[in-house]
């Protein structure tokens, strides 16, 4: 059987079609963002608990004769019923425990996740010594954990347990896995005065995005949920003459915040409204005029529409002229010269084995000179 001959041109054409298909798929995925991918709710944030405790059982690496440690240890022993001496004024005498070298005063902290925490939940805690040399082998005594505000004496949890020092961390820092037990419930509050506030992720935050979110939410009064005569986010009985306050209303406050009024239909079940809201598809403006640089990892991501002015770039013994009739000129679809693209300049530098750190330096210089037409973001 004779097999047909496949020409190099056919293979190249097929490869181009495959790449085009991938590009089309990427565009479709990029356009499939939902509101929940772009922002979070105000109240959906982490909270910190903190406390001041004592770690015992150290091998002579504690605080030594530190007075604050002595007072704290004496007070704890008194609360636990231990016999403690007092002076003439009735104050605790810390001479008996002042030089205890196996005890260290520490700061204890824990993070409550964005979803909150229920009474009885256990969380990890982090411990940092104040003046001890090492916390290796120590045990954290029962420590009350307070909120971040010093004027609020509420005890939200109690921390206790054997501390663990990581080989990659200094010996003055340690953790306890599941060392905190919540004594109170901390709920994430999303609704205030029948309103919720959307906080746009800083990677997407701008006035254009905030306005698009406002428009999309407000346009939902014309969408349906199975019934074309019923609005998805408004009262099922709403008609053209109904009060517009019956529907969801969004208002962009700034480039980071959009305030949304919960419709009366969902006042008793705001979670259902939030689920609908975060599922709204959002079409963002073209962000191809953006350069993102991660100097620590040596990563540079360049949008395809980032342009540069006609410039001469010199790098050691290399000279590259971009635009203006030099060696590096972009040709538009109609065959006429167009503005040079930063991506093409990066490709040319890459072909000449120019290191990434030098490319980053060139981009910084172009931006500082005002010859880079796009947004540069450093991570």
List keywords for this structure.
single chain, disordered N terminus, 7 helices, alpha+beta, 379 residues, 22% helix, 3 domains
Tally of helical segments: 7
Order of helices and strands: HHEEHEEEEEEHEEHEEEEEEEEHHEE
Strand residue percentage: 25-35%
**Euclidean distance between termini CA atoms:** 59 Å
Q: What profile does the largest beta sheet have?
A: 6 strands, antiparallel, barrel
Specify the oligomeric state. Answer: single chain
Total number of distinct structural domains? 3
The total of beta strands comes to 20
Task: State the low-pLDDT regions, or none.
Answer: 1-30, 222-230, 236-245, 325-332
Going across the biggest sheet, name each strand in turn. Answer: 2-3-4-7-6-5
The helicity comes to 10-25%
Instruction: Determine the mean pLDDT.
Output: 77
* Backbone structural class: alpha+beta
Shape: flat
- How large is the radius of gyration? 31 Å
Provide a brief overview of the structure.
By secondary structure, the chain is an alpha+beta fold. It is built from 7 helices and 20 strands.
